[in-house]
Amino acid sequence: MLDGPVPEGARSVSWPWYHHELGEELTLAARTVLEQYSNIDPEAIESHVYRIRDKAWGIFPWPCIGEFWFLSFGLSKHPLYHTQVLPRLKRGATLLDLGSCLAQDLRKCVFDGAPAANLYASDLFAEYDELSYELWQDRDRFPKGHYIADDILAENAKFSGGNLMRKLGPGQTDIIAITMFLHLFDYTNQLKVATRILRLLSHRPGSLILGSQAGVVEATEQPLKPPFDKTKDGEKRTVFRHSPSSFTRLWEEAGMAAGVPLRVSAVFQVPDQGAESVRVDSGLGDVAPEKKKKAAPEQETRRLYFSIVRS
User: Fold this and answer.
1) Do 107 and 60 form a contact (C-beta atoms < 8 A)?
2) pLDDT of 275-287, one tens digit each?
C-alpha cells in the first residue's frame, strides 16, 4: 500500500482517528498483559501507552496507531487460537506474524504459554522492533533478531533475496498470521501478497494461514479517503474489501498460481447476542465513526475471520 513518503498532513493530530483519550481501547486484556507480563506499574500504564503511541505515530501515522489498536490482541480472538495455534506452538511449531506492528499478538502468545523462540514478527518498518521492546518491556524474554523488517510487495528478485526469505527460508514456517493486514491492499496486490505468503508457508500438510480483516457482504474495490487517497504519482488509491466467497476465490487463485493445494474457510464474526455492532478496524481510517455516514447493509464493514490450510 505504501509507495512513497508519508502523505502531506497525515501526521496531524486533528484526524478523527488520532484519539486523545485511551477510553475503551485499554481493555482488561491489554492492562493484564502490561501489568503481569511487562511488569508496568498500574498507575503508569496510561502514560506509557500514550508515549509509545506517539513514537509509533512518528514512524508512520497509520489510523490504527492513532486508535491504539496495538493494544488489541486480534490473533487471540480468532476461533482457532486456543484449539490450533497455541497447542501447535507449545509442541514446537513456528509462527510468523505478518504486518505485526508492535508485535502485540506475539507477546500475547508468550503470555499464554507459547515459547518465544518459535515466534517471528515482520513489518515494513524496522523501527517497530525497538519500539516493541519499549512497549512490552521484555528484552530479557523475547529473542532479539525475531523482528524481520521486509517489504512483502518488493520486486520479485528483491523479495527472494530479502530478509524474510533469508532468515526464515521458503517453505519453513508452520503458521502465518495476517491479522488486519491483507485488506490494506487492492486486489492485485492482495493476490501478490498471498502468493508470497505461500512461498513462506511450510510444505507440510496442515500448515496454517489465519487471521481476520475488514470485510463486506458484497465484495468491492473501495477508494480511500484523504490523506491516503492518492499514490505518489497522484493516482487514486483503492483497497479491496472481501466477502467470504470473494476471499475464498482469492486464495484459490493464489493456490493455483503457486501450485499449492489449499482448503479455505472465511466467515463473518457473529456479534454477541444483543450487541449492536462489532468494532472493526481497517487500518486506514475509512471506517472512522466520527466521519462515516451510515452505509448500506451490503457495504457495512464486518469482521471476517479466515483460515487457509495446506492440503
Assistant:
1) no
2) 434 455 555 554 3
